[in-house]
Design brief:
By secondary structure, this protein is mainly beta. It has three domains: 283 residues, no CATH class; 211 residues, no CATH class; 159 residues, no CATH class. It has ten helices and 46 strands. The strands form seven sheets. It has a 19-stranded mixed sheet that branches. Strand 29 and strand 30 form a beta hairpin. Helix 1 packs across helix 7. The two termini are 45 Å apart.
């Protein structure tokens, strides 16, 4: 450890060769972080680090004009003549004096409104000037934590990779990315190739600071990265903001800059607070200093998010282009309070790129060979923003610690401590790790795997699992067994499984299962075990209907081509009916509105006859899912699929039942499903889901093999399936062995409508409307219409949604409410 001070000095000195370097402070000699430093009227620039230090990549001697730009401070232009390197230039910035002299303010004519209108009117004109470009992109992510808890839910939280000191404070995440990006406005396309990436203390060095996600374009109507917050210059911004002209000042080129304060009309809307700076006559953004909260971005654990942007003037396109950007975050989650910043620098713009048909593909992110293995010498010549001493120390310390923590001696010592058996482990669970050999043996205890239904009574599950990671590319295998026991029926049901996965690229996977288990009559599993437990024990209502199957199956799946997923399975099962064995509830039968029903979904009053006769049958499933024009990210060891919101996803499935003890039970059915979620920007989100199926021949098949609708009979549900569930439809009322189709439509306006209604807008509720329909060959149509409120809850915690539904079927009208969890 005594070598660290020397290594720090070595790193600092190595980055000062053939560069312009220095420190930027204010008049109190305090360092100014994130100051934009660039060549005048060019697209070459950098920014200062948290200590105010900067490096500007200039290798040729000669005369230069340097600009130092920082919101709230006077922009400084320096003429320099470089004869030797390194060239050191320290700068002191003075606070900007905002003037309102000569500006006439009246209640009838707010000058800020006029400026914003002109900025909105000129959005396309300004962005068309750089509609196509390539650039270099640099990002750095830094997260610190203070007084981190030692334990969470009784488990040790560790030392976060070695970044914590004796007070459990320090850097827990530090990463950098340098990449080349390409952008096209029409059609909107983006591509990024990462040249170098590193993460402190990690071997693979894959940083997830993607340029496309980081590029916050305030010229768009909504900011997708911030959960579609309304831009201050959105086409309908005046419905969300009030504007005040704080004053004006001139930049070094003599341009008049307007500083405008944002005053949200309703603080609970998806809006920013803060300031934007607009260039007079050009009506372009000069800068932004914006703040929002977790409540506004629907992330309750976030206290604040701060966005800062700086734009610089480029003579080649006569436009103001984004130069630097930072996002500061402050989080409070279950006792953990991380804070940090992501910083971004855009440089070396080329506004006349030679794009070809092969420039933009569905691969929007890729890595150069060995991009994650660049050494410190390479980074010192590449990095546009110097590291602080704290960051240098973190890299050096964690890179050294990484070697130690990969050793067998260290990993074995960690395992010896972590593998100790605790008093609660038999009930909760236990894991035995061999980290060096990348193997884990685990046991799942009964405490968190216990539920209740009228067939099994209280039932619990225990299991064992063995997992081995075979490489870093996603190849692994595991095997395990579970044993379920129903206390009322006194029945043991064991199952086993073996799975192998080959990689994280096409995600090829093969699994074998077998044993004895229970399954819902509706294979879409309309009711969860938790919902059924609550209703049974508190209301004496048992909507869950299940049967038993002894089975053996094999499953295979992979992505055979980008956006095309293949899946298949083959199962042979002995299926048997089950009957109620328990009448237990917290509510006595005499105080209940109705007793428990039978386990026969066709006749809940029949406790003697089952819904089907026991039989054996084989099932073959072959399916394909098509995600059209799917975008994806190519990481060194994996492929991450992004989908494509502009196109729907189509699923096709063929299911064949054969080999039954009664030939009449054999069947062939085709099922198709198409779904899509579409962002309407400031006006919310629209989604649809259509599903249909047809049997090749109508036969008297077993009840569970019919095509069934996904119904609901509960007022409160813990799972949100709003685009596949019928809210007031009995679970087992609609089924067919012929043909059927269903459709679900829903639009969440978020704050677009209710946000404009006085008083109600303060509640920050989201209006949601929907429509559903179901048709079957041998049943009357069923329709539903709903209007609901989302974003319900308390303070920042808004995870509830309530809907009022009107349903109609067989000349029967039904109305009711459904309350559900609606997690983001």
């Amino acid at each position: 450890m005594k070598r660290i001070p020397f290594l720090i000095l070595l790193c600092i000195s190595s980055i000062q060769i053939a560069q312009v370097t220095g420190k930027i402070t204010n008049q109190k000699n305090e360092p100014l972080p994130f100051v934009s430093v660039y060549l005048d009227k060019a697209a070459i620039g950098t920014t200062s680090n948290n200590n105010g230090d900067y490096i500007l990549d200039i290798k040729d001697k000669g005369n230069y004009s340097l600009v130092y730009q920082f919101l709230g401070y006077k922009t400084v232009k320096k003429q320099i003549k470089i004869t030797n390197f390194p060239y050191v230039l320290n700068i002191t910035l003075e606070e900007e004096k905002i003037e309102l002299d000569g500006i006439s303010i009246s209640t009838n004519d707010n000058p800020a409104n006029n400026i914003i209108r002109k900025t909105i009117d000129n959005k396309d004109k300004n962005t068309d000037k750089y509609a196509n470009f390539t650039a270099k992109f640099y990002s750095r992510g830094l997260t610190k934590i203070k007084n981190a808890p030692k334990k969470f839910l009784g488990q040790s939280t560790g030392d976060f990779g070695g970044g914590l000191d004796s007070t459990r404070s320090g850097i827990v995440y530090l990463s950098e990315t340098f990449s080349k990006i390409a952008f096209q406005k029409k059609p909107n396309r983006f591509k990024e190739k990462i040249v170098a990436s590193k993460v402190s203390g990690q071997d693979n060095g894959v940083s997830f600071n993607r340029a496309e996600q980081s590029n916050i374009n305030l010229y768009d109507n909504s900011v997708a990265t911030f959960n579609d917050l309304i831009s201050p210059i959105s086409t309908n911004a005046f419905a969300y903001y009030r504007y005040k002209l704080e004053g004006t000042f001139y930049d070094t080129n003599g341009k008049l800059i307007n500083k405008i304060k944002l005053n949200p009309k309703r603080k609970n809307d998806r809006v920013f607070e803060g300031f934007i700076y607009v260039v007079e006559d050009d009506w372009a953004l000069y800068g932004a200093d914006l703040t929002t909260s977790g409540a506004q971005v629907n992330l309750p654990f976030v206290n604040t998010l701060v966005l800062k942007q700086t734009y610089i003037y480029n003579t080649s396109v006569d436009a103001w282009i984004l130069s630097t950007q930072s996002i500061d975050f402050d989080i409070n989650f279950l006792g953990f309070k991380p804070r940090g910043r992501f910083s971004y620098v855009y440089s070396d713009y080329d506004f006349k790129p030679d794009f070809t048909e092969k420039t933009f593909t569905n691969e929007v992110l890729s890595f150069e060979e060995n991009a994650t293995k660049k050494d410190s010498v390479y980074w010192n010549t590449l990095r546009p923003v110097p590291l602080t001493k704290e960051e240098i120390k973190d890299y050096l310390f964690k890179d050294s610690l990484k070697v130690v923590r990969k050793s067998k001696k260290y990993l074995d010592s960690v395992d010896r401590k972590g593998n100790k058996f605790g008093w609660s482990d038999p009930l909760i669970g236990y894991s035995y790790n061999n980290s060096y050999k990348k193997k884990t043996f685990s046991y799942q205890g009964p405490l968190l795997n216990t539920s209740f239904n009228t067939i099994q009574g209280f039932h619990t599950n225990v299991g064992i699992n063995f997992f081995e990671r075979l490489n870093d590319d996603g190849k692994w295998w595991n095997a395990g067994a579970n044993v379920s026991y129903g206390f009322s029926e006194k029945r043991v049901r064991p199952t086993f499984y073996v799975t192998k996965k080959w990689n994280n690229t096409n995600k090829r996977r093969l699994s074998v299962f077998g044993g004895v288990t229970t399954a819902q009559f509706n294979d879409r599993n309309p009711i969860t075990n938790l919902d059924n437990l609550i209703r049974s024990l508190l209301r004496r209502e048992n909507y869950l209907k299940i049967y038993e199957k002894e089975f053996a199956s094999i499953r295979y799946a992979e992505e055979i081509k980008n956006g095309i997923y293949f899946s298949s399975s083959l199962e042979y099962a002995n299926r048997k009916p089950l009957f109620n064995t328990s009448n237990y509830s917290f509510v006595s039968e005499s105080n209940s509105e109705q007793p428990y029903t039978s386990n026969n979904p066709l006749d809940p009053t029949d406790f003697t006859n089952p819904a089907f006769t026991a039989h054996k049958i084989a099932t073959l499933n072959i399916g394909a899912t098509f995600t059209f024009n799917q975008k994806y990210l190519s990481y060194p060891n994996s492929k991450v699929n992004l989908g494509n919101d502009k196109y729907p996803t189509l699923n096709l499935q063929y299911r064949k039942r054969f080999g039954a003890t009664n030939n009449e039970l054999n069947s062939d059915v085709f099922i198709a499903n198409i779904r899509q979620n579409i962002s309407a920007g400031n006006y919310g989100d629209f989604g649809y889901n259509f599903r249909g199926g047809i049997f090749l021949k109508k036969k008297n098949i077993a009840f569970m093999d019919n095509l069934q609708a996904n119904g609901n009979q509960l007022f409160f549900v813990t799972s949100d399936k709003s685009l596949s569930r019928f809210n007031l439809l009995d679970y087992y009322q609609y089924y067919t062995n012929d043909r059927y189709a269903e459709g679900h439509l829903e639009h969440n306006f978020r704050g677009a409508l209710l946000g404009k209604i006085p008083l109600l807008n303060k509640l920050n509720f989201h209006l949601i409307i929907g429509g559903k329909g179901l048709v079957m060959a041998d049943r009357n149509p069923y329709t539903e219409y709903s209007v609901g409120l989302g974003n319900l809850g308390f303070g920042k915690w808004r995870f509830l949604r309530i809907d009022y539904i009107s349903a109609r079927y067989s000349n029967v009208n039904q109305r009711g409410f459904v309350l559900r969890l609606n997690l983001p």
